[in-house]
Recover the amino acids of this structure.
């Protein structure tokens, strides 16, 4: 599993956009993230290139356009945040945080199962 240092809140925003939309260019991500971050296009591109180097995103060319896609599942990203919140903020067990996330985030049964499996593997 990822360490708490591996995904910053801003990287999580980018991942959320890609999980919802699939493969996107920097411009497409920029159009969705600009109001939340105030970043210039170059900042978004730099951040996404760094995420690719960290293994969070895959960068590839399609018809002359660079596209990015997540290299981790939504459940893996959520497991990272559950662990971070449970261990670092609330100092509670994972199940309490999973329940909190489940109430506030629309998770499929498959995503919930994968999330619990990832957390159990990490213990």
């Amino acid at each position: 599993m990822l360490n708490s240092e591996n995904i910053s809140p801003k990287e999580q925003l980018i991942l959320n956009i890609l999980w919802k939309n699939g493969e996107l260019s920097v411009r497409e991500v920029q159009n969705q993230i600009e109001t939340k971050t105030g970043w210039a296009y170059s900042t978004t591109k730099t951040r996404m290139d760094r995420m690719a180097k960290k293994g969070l995103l895959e960068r590839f060319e399609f018809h002359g356009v660079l596209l990015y896609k997540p290299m981790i599942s939504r459940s893996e990203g959520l497991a990272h945040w559950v662990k971070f919140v449970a261990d670092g903020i609330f100092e509670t067990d994972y199940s309490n945080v999973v329940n909190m996330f489940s109430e506030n985030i629309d998770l499929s049964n498959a995503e919930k199962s994968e999330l619990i499996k990832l957390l159990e593997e990490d213990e």
Notes: Helices lie at 9-21, 26-37, 41-54, 74-90, 94-104, 109-122. The mean pLDDT is 82.
